[in-house]
Amino acid sequence: MAEPVLSQVFDAAGPYLDSLATRPVHDPASEELLARLGGPLPETGVGAASAVSELLDVGTRAATASAGPRFFHFVTGGVTEAALAADWTASLLDQNAFSRVASPFATFTEGVAIDWLRDLAGLPGGWGGALVASATFANFTSLGCATQWWGSRLGADTVRDGLSGLPRMPVFSGGYVHASARKALQMLGHGRDAVQVCAADEAGRVSLSEMRSRLSALNGAPAVIIANAGEVNAGDFDPVSDLADLAAEFGCWLHVDGAFGLFAAVSPRTAHLVSGIDRADSIAADGHKWLNVPYESGFALIRDPDRLGQAFGMPGAAYLPGPGDLAGGYALYGPESSRRARSLPIWATLAAYGRSGYREMVERHLDLAQHLAGLVDASPVLQRLADVPLCIVCLRACPPGVEPSGLDDFNRRLGAALIADGRVYAGTTVYAGRVALRPAIVNWRTGPADIELFVDVLHELITGLQN
Asked: pLDDT at residue 3 above 80?
């Protein structure tokens, strides 16, 4: 029977979740456990109870505690209690969210979740969208709609005929453009280097004058502008409203990559950072970041939702519904066909905590980021490299005795030592030509003590590297 096996997971869940507050993010000693899961495919199975027991024993000891309060790497949130329970429910019900005919429940819930996300972002009614697997797929979906729009402006049907014979689609962005947007363009056939970067400085701030000049040179040809709401090194924002002005003036498609920065709209303290986002044509975001829901919870929001069906409707298989069919659904509005009911954790967390709960969480993280910035500023061996408009603090070590020419190497070694130590987690980057750390604070469990531990560990590791 299934129930005893499920009880094993339930029994393991409580102790594991309780341990997240104090356990290391990664225990290097647990690496040897992973070998227990390898080896050749068994000829005879060990049975469900034994298999699940082994997976739980290894997993609860060897897994990276990215759901915990001290994981500051990759802009990764935890999973709220409501979202976790709903994710278990999604696996329990095992719905195919392909279409209404496959699952009216999953399709209806997805529609509600998309509309609630639209509302949370402060967008007007009429916008549509789709839940997808990641921010990369949200960019892919959005830029897929942009491609269909661009082709139609040229009198072509890119969905039917592809890109052959057409000029390269012009794409413009500042230096904050993320690799996931480039990857989306790569997968769409435009090439990852299709983006023409208009940067005003080494940090990547957008040059509006350069972009205007390049758009003018197109002589009215359609183009795409990518605005970046929250860049990953320091949490800075492109001036979305100014880019919306350029898009309106030159007749461009405006796409906003708001993977985590879209959630600035939740708080009156930061809503100005996304001013003008309602003038965009498409927006990409990722729920596993600041929404704190499980992975595979990206979403694309589209001003003209009909473009989703035009860009992603399935070609003629007689047994499948079309985009306008009442039996259709969200598989016809995005890149995936068979899909799990990923709307359930999003619906549950928004229903459980509401707008005010998310506003409180975002503002608490804003305060924690400022707390970290203050600790960095007060430290004799740390240096903050940028302002902190949101939830990321860009910093580096600059201890006495290390020559300026050696700081990049020292910070690379510090980043490696931080990961190897495992008590807290943050990775290195290059910001304005300097190797730095970029801790991001988006986990609902994170509190002041976790921030203070992070700084204490940095000080300890810096001392160790100098001895």
From this structure: no
CB 451 within 8 A of CB 402: no
CA triple 203-209-214, angle to 5 deg: 105
What is the value of pTM for the model shown? 0.96
Among residues 31, 25, 111, the alpha carbon closest in space to that of 70 is found at 25
- Please give the C-alpha separations between residue 195 and each of 139, 174, 319, 407, in angstroms, as whole numbers: 13, 9, 39, 32
22 token code pair: 């104090």
Asked if residue 418 is part of any domain, the answer here is: no
User: Between 179-187 and 135-153, two packed helices, what is the crossing angle to 10 degrees?
Assistant: 50
Cβ–Cβ < 8 Å for 98, 338: yes
- 97 and 37 in one domain? no
Place of tokens 């998309």: 114
Q: Which element (helix H / strand E) includes 257?
A: strand 253-257
**∠ Cα 14 19 20 (to 5°):** 105
Domain contains 440: no
Alpha-carbon span 345 to 287, nearest angstrom: 10
User: Model confidence over 375-433: pLDDT tens digits?
Assistant: 999 999 999 999 999 999 999 999 999 999 999 999 999 999 999 999 999 999 999 99
Which residues lie below 8 Å from residue 433, measured CB to CB, with a gap of 6+?
202
**Does the pLDDT value for residue 318 go beyond 90?**
no
- Residue 201 and residue 303 share a domain: yes
Contact 170, 196 (CB under 8 A): yes
d(CA 262, CA 257): 8
One-letter amino acid for residue 336 of the chain: E
Produce one character per residue of 399-414: b if its CB has 16 or more CB atoms within 10 Å, e if not.
Answer: beebeeeebbebbebb
Q: Is 407 helix (H, G, I), strand (E, B) or coil?
A: helix
* Angstrom distance (rounded) from CA 297 to CA 56: 24
Tell me if 72 is assigned to some domain: no
Residue 138: name the closest of 180, 91, 77 by CA: 180
Question: In this structure, is residue 315 part of a structural domain?
Answer: yes
> Which pairing describes strands 224-228 and 171-173: parallel, antiparallel, or unpaired?
parallel
- Side by side, the strands of the sheet bearing 195-197 are 128-132, 298-302, 282-286, 253-257, 224-228, 171-173, 195-197
| pLDDT beyond 70 at 1 | no
CB 445 within 8 A of CB 80: no
36, 179: one domain: no
- The CA-atom distances, in angstroms, between 412 and each of 56, 385, 407, 440 are 34, 16, 9, 18
Measured CA distances, 32 to 61, 62, 84, 180, 348 (Å): 11, 9, 28, 33, 37
Q: For residue 62, what are the domain limits?
A: 3-67
**Overall domain count for the chain:** 2
